[in-house]
Hints:
The protein has helices at 2-12, 25-42, 78-81, 99-107, 128-134, 157-166, 169-175, 193-196, 242-245, 251-262, 277-285, 297-310, 320-326, 346-359; strands at residues 17-22, 46-50, 55-60, 63-71, 88-92, 115-120, 145-146, 207-213, 220-228, 231-240, 267-272, 290-292, 313-315, 331-334, 337-340, 374-375.
Amino acid sequence: MGLSFFLWAQACFDGRQFGLCGKTITALRRNLLAELIPFLRRLGMAVQERRSENLFIIRFSGRENRFLLFGGRDESSAALIQGTTLAGVLLDEAALMPQSFVEQAIARCSVHGSKIWFNCNPEGPQHWLYQEWILKAEERRTLYVHFTMEDNPALSPAIRERYRRNYSGVFFQRFVLGEWCAAQGLVYDFFDPVRDAVPVPKGPFSEWRISVDYGTVNPASFGLWGLCGGVWFRVDEFYYDSKKAGRQKTDAEYVDDLIQLAGERDIRRVIVDPSAASFMEALRRRGLVVVRADNDVSDGIRVTADLLRRGEIAICKNCEDCLREISLYRWELRGDRDAPRKADDHAMDDLRYFAMDAAGGGDGGFAVAVVERGCF
């Protein structure tokens, strides 16, 4: 789709501006442009990047056009694209962007002959993009193309089979079948705490990490993780509910609790809720290596489910609060999209933080492989 967009732009326009939009500019560069720009150069296009301006200038067959990069992370992002005049826009993973940003991008396409290009993975059936564009495709004179995982030529038969095994429930329906379905029931519906919890292995452990969901009014949850035989085991945990205990703890007290949880183990790093800035600083002052957790809830749940199903992370039987929460962690509808219910989710948050860190190799980032897309 990216290739088609650039070929269309260079064939139909000269001296115009176009928009390339992702949830963030970093994601746009990583997921689209890193693969596409070298291919455009092999086709004979001259590609000049001005990284500080988030701009690409492309020359081909005597024509030159400018391609501006925009991130549509939240409602405030609409102001970033406001006032720009565009001959076309490509919105990569449009369902992850707020409606206000997408509508502003569409409104910027005021040049005669301009077109709007979308692609996305499916969300719930109440999502505004599904309601306003897919269901009204004929009314809006939109070409809608539906793909399933089987249409992805980049996936080998073995990888496709792995995805079929590892995805379940809503993830299977959305990312294998490409359906805009509602999330219902338990988030980790495949996991049975009685059946799937494991005893603490005897070791040896080659590495230790701790994941933290910080809370003062809300509960705080820490998970102690050890790597043994290629599997990360949640071997112990700390869970403190200030409402039940009748008093809140300070950052210093929580640091003491974390150090007690670690014991004599060499903790490689502590993955912390990114909103807990003061707690992270308190940990650093005690000599601990701190990593800001990736707090993308949707990606985090998918990654956690994938690692649990593949047996790359495991929860030990003594981690009672994590096992209790995983049996209660449920979906709910919030506005036009579904999300996990904001209850019994504190150990689930620290579990998700750890899974994203483990899947990303600890380099501070993670990219989820896209196995299905619809474009329209």
